[in-house]
């Protein structure tokens, strides 16, 4: 165990990187996928089960937790780690993305954002200073700057205005964060799809100096091709010796493409949300367990994915899902989370061995085969 936050880059293969983030609560192997525990829980999973899938770190949501049960209550109860029985690292987002998505329920100024709660309509204010306060009360290991994330597409004037305000907020976040040994603060690059704005944002963040750097403002409707075009240059604009975190991504092929372009960390609700809606990820692509083709199929979803779902037939999983039984969401979520962690582990090994390109080719070739033939 270490008393400080640090990042060690262990190997590269092309732009792909593997390393270790060290924190007082444990190591995070990179590239890392962070399951999302929005309201202090990864839906349909116990924290022990999430750890069993191979996850080193979870993500918590500042916006949701500040509203219910409140950061002050969580602090009184010993902090977020104790509250949700997860003693490993936790990253909390700043709340900015959720607040920005409220549209008609919010008002944006240079100071911050005032908004109405989606729960009861009560009014709240979120500023860089308040976001830092909330995340300190939660006790998160990695704290995110407060920023604005405009939806895409947007014109250049809107993007640059938003980006520059986010950079001013980044400085205020750093000032409010203060000196907290063992805890890290990440800056968030903005700038839409514009390379010059991304570079301006990256320079502002480098000048402020952060423990890690996130690439924000993607996976907001621009499509994979546009996202990859940005990732062809955005990670290179950030420091080599600090973790790079792509926020809110994504699908398995998004993740692989991001790692190929130099990203170290990702998060997404997709594996858990998909599990609850009957969408299952396998080495041969996506399976919809709702489909009638599975009703008499005695085979498992994917024998190569070591999760409890492997002990049940497709027929059984189809039955419990169609019957609205809770076990369906539990088993399918566990399977999906393990599949995502398997991808990360395989990429770490491939990068270390210098075989990432060959691994990636096989990854896409297997998915192109499609699901196994019906019986």
From TrEMBL:
Enzymatic reactions: 7-aminomethyl-7-carbaguanine + guanosine(34) in tRNA = 7-aminomethyl-7-carbaguanosine(34) in tRNA + guanine
Gene3D superfamilies hit by this protein: Queuine tRNA-ribosyltransferase-like (3.20.20.105)
Which positions does UniProt annotate for substrate binding? 93-97, 147, 190, 217
Enzyme class at the top of the EC tree: transferase
Q: Which domain of life is it from?
A: Bacteria
Q: Which InterPro entries match?
A: ArchSynthase1/Queuine_TRR (IPR050076), TGT (IPR004803), TGT-like_sf (IPR036511), tRNA_ribo_trans-like (IPR002616)
The answer to whether the entry has keyword Cytoplasm is no
A single Gene Ontology CC annotation of this entry is: cytosol
| UniProt EC number | 2.4.2.29
Ranges for domain tRNA-guanine(15) transglycosylase-like: 15-365
GO BP terms: tRNA queuosine(34) biosynthetic process
Q: Which HAMAP family match?
A: Q_tRNA_Tgt
Instruction: Describe the protein's quaternary organization and the partners it interacts with.
Output: Homodimer. Within each dimer, one monomer is responsible for RNA recognition and catalysis, while the other monomer binds to the replacement base PreQ1.
Family under the similarity heading: Belongs to the queuine tRNA-ribosyltransferase family.
Q: What is this protein called?
A: Queuine tRNA-ribosyltransferase
Q: Which gene encodes it?
A: tgt
């Amino acid at each position: 165990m270490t008393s400080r936050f640090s990042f060690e880059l262990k190997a590269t293969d092309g732009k792909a990187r593997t390393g270790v983030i060290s924190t007082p609560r444990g190591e995070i192997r990179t590239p890392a996928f962070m399951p999302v525990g929005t309201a202090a829980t990864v839906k349909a999973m116990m924290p022990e089960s999430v750890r069993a899938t191979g996850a080193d770190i979870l993500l918590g949501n500042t916006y949701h937790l500040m509203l219910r049960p409140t950061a002050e209550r969580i602090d009184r109860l010993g902090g977020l780690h104790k509250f949700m029985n997860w003693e490993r690292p936790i990253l909390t987002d700043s709340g900015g993305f959720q607040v920005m998505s409220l549209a008609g329920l919010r008002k944006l100024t240079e100071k911050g954002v005032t908004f109405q709660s989606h729960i009861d309509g009560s009014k709240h204010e979120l500023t860089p200073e308040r976001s830092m306060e909330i995340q300190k009360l939660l006790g998160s290991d990695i704290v995110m700057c407060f920023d604005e994330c405009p939806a895409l597409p947007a014109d250049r004037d809107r993007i640059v205005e938003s980006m520059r305000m986010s950079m001013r907020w980044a400085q205020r976040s750093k000032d409010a964060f203060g000196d907290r040994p063992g805890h890290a603060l990440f800056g968030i690059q903005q700038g839409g799809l514009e390379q010059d704005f991304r570079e301006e944002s990256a320079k502002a963040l480098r000048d402020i100096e952060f423990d890690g750097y996130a690439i924000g403002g993607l996976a907001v409707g621009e499509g994979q091709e546009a996202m990859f075009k940005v990732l062809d240059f955005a990670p290179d604009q950030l420091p080599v010796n600090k973790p790079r975190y792509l926020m809110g991504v994504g699908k398995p092929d998004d993740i692989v493409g991001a790692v190929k372009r130099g990203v170290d960390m990702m998060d997404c609700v997709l594996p858990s949300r998909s599990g609850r809606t009957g969408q299952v990820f396998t080495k041969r692509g996506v399976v919809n367990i709702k489909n009638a083709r599975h009703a008499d199929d005695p085979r498992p979803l994917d024998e190569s994915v070591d999760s409890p779902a492997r002990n049940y037939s497709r027929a059984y999983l189809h039955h419990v899902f169609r019957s609205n039984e809770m076990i369906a969401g539990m088993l399918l979520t566990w399977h999906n989370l393990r599949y995502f962690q398997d991808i990360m582990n395989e990429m770490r090994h491939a990068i270390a061995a210098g075989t990432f390109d060959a691994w990636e080719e096989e990854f896409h070739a297997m998915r192109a085969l499609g699901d196994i033939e019906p019986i």
